[in-house]
Amino acid sequence: MHSYNAMMGPTTRKLEIENKQTCIIDMRAWVCISLSYQLLILPVKEMFHLVCMVIIFVDISAAVSTCDKTVNISSSVTTIDLQDTPVKPDQCTWTLQSPSKTTIVVKIIDIQLRGSLDRVIALDGPHENATVIQQCGLYCNLKGSFLISSKNQMLIQTYLGANEDIRIFSVQAWAQDNGGRFYDKGYITLKNSTDNSSYYQLHSTIKQSDEKLQVQLILNDSLMYPASSVKVYDGISDQDPLLANFRTKEQFVPITSSQQDLLIVTEGFNDQLLYFGGSFDSIKPDCHKVSSGSSGSFSLDRKNFMTECDWLINPTMSSGNIILDLSSVDLCENETLVIYEGLSSFGQKLATITKKTQLSSYPLFSATAANGLSIFLNGQTSNSTCKTTPFSGSYWTVPGCSGDLQPSGMITSPLYPSQYPLNYVCQWNVKPGNKTTSLYITFNTLDMSGATTINVDVESKQVANYTGSALPASDLVTKVTSNTSASIVFDSNTGNLGTGIEIPGQGFSLSYKILECGSQINADNGTLSSDTDIPANVTECIWVITVPQAASQFKNSVSLNLYITGGGKGYKIELRDGGSSCFIYFFQVQDRAKRWRYKIELRDGGSVRSPLLYSGFESMSSVTTNNMVWMRYAKNSTENDVAADNTSFNLYFDTFTITLCDKISRLPYEEYILHRKNFSAKCTWAITPNQTSGNVIFEIRSTELCDNETLYVYEGAPMTDRKLGTITKTTQLSRYPKFSASVKKGLR
């Protein structure tokens, strides 16, 4: 850029160029001056009045001076300099105009005003009634500031007083495809840019003299290369404090200005694939809060409440979760509190609260630290009669709960045994292996709301789903083939898109194992054999066998026959009883050694929680009380008997149908009422406690038999062991003596 200084006579100037040539210019017939030299205007003795002159470098090869001119602005830099002219106008006006769908950026290179009435005004449009972008008087300092239009026109005016001191006003202007000036509230984007840099000016309009406003910026979408950047300045100059220099989307955090302007400068987006976007809003101090620490709190004072206030929580940590605890919500009429995952209302809505739906206490809410969490309070009108504190709360951060499963262990819901937060997701993965395994899961506790789920997925397909508060009747054993992924996913998503608030439960605790064999078996009958179903050198396998449900008035059980073949110190098996009613069971046990290298457990039900039917490794027979049996095969690593390796087993199972009135009891104390609607031609209550010694005491509290009905009481097996009593309709009593039988034999 070429510059000069001038002291002017009435009509002429004496100019000396760098090679010391001298020329005289008649100011009344001013012409274009070559810019190939730097011009120095020498002083003369005459004094003169201040006037206004402008030299315009349109293509960096020529200069024109005039007032009240329209200047066409392109993507190339245009420089505008204000100097004195021999004729004194009170006002000079320049209308800057760029191509359609572009905006104008003006950077103030230098400004020096001398009179008390001097001022420079920039307007966002071509007319004097356009919105003021900026104005500057005697003592303002806008050097280095940016003036940006919202469209493709800007008006710059200078007003000069009678002071004869020299004034300086020098700017550079250019057009841009993206960027511009934005007011109060909205959304900004940058895409398909051909500019290396783009400039955005966000401005909050103050309507009252005592009003204070700030600008809040939330960037929420982008595709950036390593060379791209988004810089945010607290003001209108790139010399103002730098609030952020974002180079990746993951770095985005909410930005709030200290006053009513934010300047955004983007660089390196001149690629059609690159873009960014975000929202901004005008906010009132103390009505809007941004928290970036690992914990914090906020209580909104109603005197600071505008029609909208918010609390944005965006910790600097890139992993883990935010836990939000709303300690109180006390809204007035027409006020709504909304909680989002994310830092704007574009995020996932977690809850909506009004005066009618507010609660005395709230569950915890959660969001990933990477996404952040926000609370927005809206009111249609200010309520001067309402004096409550709208809301208060606190938050903290916790590590993420996802990870890889070990060979065995236990996992729990977040914050267990306390209530889990809403909108929390945990995923535990089974590492893909080079051989087929079985994932075994059993629940220890389960207490979840209806919208909260636990899914077990294998190869992205759901194999099991759990919710509610009832423990599953069956444990899960699912095959995971080689090089296949499997996962356990806990999801306490609100499930209703924020229209209400789920009340969570205590959560869950489950144990798991990654086994070498085992599965769920659903069949009418079948066989499990050590020869075909157990790979060599395994240490543990678990199966859950389920036969079909019976028709009405009947119940299916599982008939079991275990056969042990071979010699040595053998194996061991367990069976457990998980039902509430049964027919009868019996054992046929061969006389074998009591010291086993292997063990089999059979349980009367589908879970390890079910009652134990059998534990050992000897031939036996039994019938379960329900349609499931849990079986575990395990190796006792402390025993070492080569002969035992030649011992094998076969377990045959079949469906056994009984009536609903049959029941088996193994607890130390139990009651039973036979309802006539469940009565069939024959019903049996078998009492066989798990104790190894002692006596069973049986008390009949009432009988109301019909004709041709007989009640028998036996010690041991019916019809073969000792009969203790016979009761008919004609012999029944209003009160009966107690009966007794040995625990070993039981009572029927």
From TrEMBL:
The keyword Repeat belongs to this UniProt entry's keyword annotation: yes
Stored InterPro entries: CUB_dom, Sperma_CUB_dom_sf
Keywords: Disulfide bond, Repeat
Ranges of residues in domain CUB: 386-515, 517-656
Record-linked Pfam families: CUB
Matching PANTHER family: CUB DOMAIN-CONTAINING PROTEIN (PTHR24251:SF40), OVOCHYMASE-RELATED (PTHR24251)
Protein name: CUBN
